[in-house]
Amino acid sequence: MSGRNPERVRNELVVAIVDALQESATVKQASSRELWREMLAGELGSLVEPFGGDRLRPWLLQVVKACTAVEYGAACLARSLEYVEQESLTVAALWPLVDEWEAVDFFDSADLGHLRPILESLRSTELASMARRASRSRVQELPRWCQTGWQVFLRLAGENTPPGELPPCMAFLALSAHRLVEEGWVEAAQVLRRFNLGQAQKLGLEVLLAEWQHSESPQPAPSVVPAYLMIQFEPDRNEAGRYYLTHWRQSDSTGWHPVRGETLHLCRAELPGAVERLIEESEARWADLRQPVILEFILPWELLNEPVEWWSKESDHPDPTPLAMDYPVLIRSLERLQRAAWHRPWHTKWRLLKDRPADSRPHWSRPAQDGAYFFHLERELKEDQHAVCLVLSEPPGDDSGTGRREVLAGLRAGVPAMIWHRSDCSDSDFQDAISEILQDRGLGSLAESVGRWRNDALALGPEGWDGHVGRHLAILLDDPERKPGPVGPV
Question: Does 419 share its domain with 347?
């Protein structure tokens, strides 16, 4: 099948990208368009000519052609618009086109159109599993726009391939062909196999393709690197009591590549139910994942003391499951993530906690009557580089009380870990528990230690766990090397 010539394939993609951009509110408005242009120039590392006031479409054609002439330039274009619009309809339309551009580039401008109807018929719930197998587990999570085999194939075409391996997109075609044969679609499978063989001959990959087709599809060994579900609540600054809920999933065992989900606008009472649904959806996506999963809640000031680890799964059941039963649950500070001026000392203390845990030590906050106490607390935490964990004297409330001022001192000083009792930090059982958790000086296993106390509380069951200190332990553990995507509401 000869198909369209290479120039037509590329031109039609350029036009499709321009069509998508013309629907963007950012592109239509002069001030925001200029902001996007500047960010695009920064991403590309080269000048992008400003809009000269002539018709918009010819200018967009020039911009897109300039971007696509640069390696990964199409991705720079979509990413820079995402910085401005986040999850807009235009951004959602652009990313699949970026994947298609990179696929066409990978296959040297071959016409892929005849593969599309076949691969679009693949809407299996196992697409993510097939992508993991095709990439030898380097691709752990698919972006939200990958809903069909066609979209997964395009996505994998942009993935790097280590020497001596079949490219993931070709491995995915082989897996897809095998799946189609199982379902009785032999002719469709042959189309994929003929294309794969032709490309393997062009690229000198016939042996690798034959090895893949005649061996068992490789199943990666279970990873010990945890997967993360990061859930962020950001207050609506214009409407009290409402929040933007955003989440990221990270399951790539080879690097930190969190995939952002949709953003919801909810009132406070709706947050637990939305989290429950989100966790259920994530578990369905990760059905075949063989890694441990950690939940991280990125919370604003007023929700820091919310017992999120005791929110429920399967709340419609007579015996709902507390999140703490199934996951390690950690708290992070939204204010710190959004305040870049606090990040340098945060990185410094985190490196010490990670690289030299035996040299790390806690700092117990014991407020004096002196009105300058919080000033001195911050000063002491900054002077003592080994103080990486702050034990609060009071839980942080939604006011400007002692607990909140202690947290603020810790954030300014870069302290990555903080522990408190959710209702009474003077409780003798809490004091004893924290002394035991911190007695080894090394704080590298802080989360695991808190988890053991929570498990002890769970062992008492709903009738008895309120009387156990493990039910009331809160831990903020903030890793600056694990940031989500750009923060802020849509």
Answer: yes
Asked whether the beta carbons of 122 and 179 are under 8 A apart, the reply is yes
**How does pLDDT run along the chain (490 residues), one tens digit per residue?**
456 777 888 888 889 999 988 888 888 888 888 888 888 888 887 787 778 777 888 888 888 888 888 888 888 888 888 888 877 888 888 888 988 888 888 888 778 888 888 988 887 667 887 888 888 777 777 777 788 888 899 889 877 777 778 888 998 999 888 888 888 888 988 999 999 898 888 888 888 888 877 664 445 555 567 889 999 999 998 999 999 999 998 887 767 778 888 889 999 999 999 999 999 989 987 877 778 899 999 999 999 999 999 999 988 888 889 999 999 999 999 999 999 999 999 999 999 888 888 888 899 998 877 778 889 999 999 999 999 999 999 999 877 789 999 999 999 999 999 999 999 999 999 999 998 888 755 566 888 889 999 999 999 999 999 999 999 999 999 999 988 864 443 3
Q: What distance lies between CA 228 and its chain's CA centroid?
A: 8
Q: State the CB neighbour count (10 A cutoff) for residue 343.
A: 14
- 341 and 398 housed in the same domain: yes
315 and 267 inside one domain: yes
Q: What is the spatial distance between Cα 401 and Cα 295, in angstroms, rounded to a whole number? A: 28
Q: Do 60 and 166 sit in the same domain of this protein?
A: no
What are the CA-CA distances from residue 68 to residues 6, 46, 60, 71, 105 (Å)? 14, 13, 12, 7, 10
Q: Which domain range does residue 362 map to?
A: 227-477
Q: Are residues 95 and 140 in the same domain?
A: no
Instruction: Check whether residue 345 and residue 206 sit in a common domain.
Output: no
